Amino acid sequence: MSWIGTKRIIKSGKTNFKRSGAVSLASILVMTVTLLVISFMIFFQAVLNFSLSQIKDKVDITVYFNVGASENKVMELKSYLENLPEVSSATYLSADEVLARFQTKHSDDYLTIQAIKEVGDNPLGAQINIKAKDASKYESIAKFLEGDSDLMKVETAVIDKINYHQNKVIIDRLLTIADQSQKLGFLVTLFLVIISILITFNTIRLAIYISKEEIGVMRLVGAENKYIRGPFMVTGAIYGIVSSAITLVLLFPVTAWFGKNMADFLNVNLFSYYVSNWFQVLGIILCSGVILGVISSFLAVRRYLNK
Predict the structure, then answer these.
(1) Of 286, 117, 300, whose CA–CA distance to 206 is shortest?
(2) pLDDT at 222
(3) Torsion angle defined by CA atoms of residues 60, 66, 71 and 74, in that order, rounded to the nearest 10 degrees
(4) Which pLDDT score, from 0 to 100, does residue 1 have?
């Protein structure tokens, strides 16, 4: 296709957009609602991912060492854990630090504090708090700790217990929620995109219906399909661009309201997220709008070209 032919198609597309004012307005409104739904799905995924990341940060496993365990052996194990590719961090707490935390946590429990004082010596051992780079890696870390023969021999054992099995239910549930939420988000997004294409398709088909006689004349004079279809696809793209611009403007007051009134409930400020990720949201919304408009126009005009 020559550059002159392309310019003519673009000019015809703009003319179609201006000429069918009421239908163009209806198409833009429908696409704007569609793009707003897509935007809210983006924000929903952001809130979900942020909430899951917060939960993941709170999940860990703790290695409890026997009272009087060799600090050198404990630090040797800590160093080894930090070098494991699955481990994000390994935080060491000495027996004194563990005791101080225990006393702070149970400061309101008089009997427990008195019992600790009556024991005299520190009854608690050192600890290492382990965070994995991914929640699915905790099991392999626990298996490593439980299967290390040098550390687990009865006569030289330094590890008292590992709380992985106590946390396993929580970790498994977290992994299940993360997996199911991703699948659900994908299915809901796919469903909404299909519905959006159908709605936009029917709206744009109305605009093309107005021009069916023009299409018939162009076919009679022997115009190629690309010259017939092209202007309508340009019109569809314009619908998408205008709808995207309206959507992006509307999102400012909407996210500002959510950011002001529901930041604590959602655990994330949607307005801050929108502003900081504006270019990314712009790309997704603009591409979605143009693609929806072009595909809907292509499908709608094909009906008349196949007659």
Answers:
(1) 300
(2) 66
(3) -40
(4) 54
Q: Would you kindly state where each structural domain of the chain is located, as residue ranges?
A: 3-55+174-305, 67-157
Q: How far is CA 105 from CA 54, 94, 101, 280, in A?
A: 22, 17, 6, 44
In the beta sheet, which residues pair with residue 130?
61, 90
Which one, of 201, 227, 223, lies nearest residue 12 by Cα? 227
How far is 140 from 136, CA to CA, in rounded Å?
A: 8
Cβ count near 166 (within 10 Å): 11
Q: Are 116 and 49 in contact, with CB atoms under 8 Å apart?
A: no
Residue 93 to residue 236: CA distance in whole angstroms: 63
Residue 84 backbone zone (phi > 0: left; psi -120 to 50: alpha; other: beta):
beta
For the domain bounded by 67-157, which CATH number is listed? 3.30.70
Q: Which stretches in the chain have pLDDT values below 50?
A: 149, 152, 154-156
What's the pLDDT at 245? Answer: 92
Contact 55, 47 (CB under 8 A): no
262 φ/ψ angles, rounded to the nearest 5 degrees: -130, 20
User: What dihedral do alpha carbons 226, 231, 233, 238 form, nearest 10°?
Assistant: 160
pLDDT per residue as tens digits for the range 125-153: 888 888 888 777 887 888 777 765 455 45
Residues 246 and 3: their CA atoms lie apart, in Å, by: 31
User: What is the distance between the alpha carbons of residues 243 and 134, in angstroms, rounded to a whole number?
Assistant: 40
d(CA 145, CA 64): 11
